[in-house]
Amino acid sequence: MKKVILILFLSLSISSCLDDDNPNYQFKLLTIDKAITPESFTYGKVDTITVHYTLPNSCHEYNDLYYKQQDTVRIVAIRAKENLGITCNQSTIKKQHSIPIRVSQKKTYLFKFWKGKDKDGKDTYEEVKVPVIVKDK
Question: Is the pTM of this model over 0.70?
Answer without folding.
Answer: yes
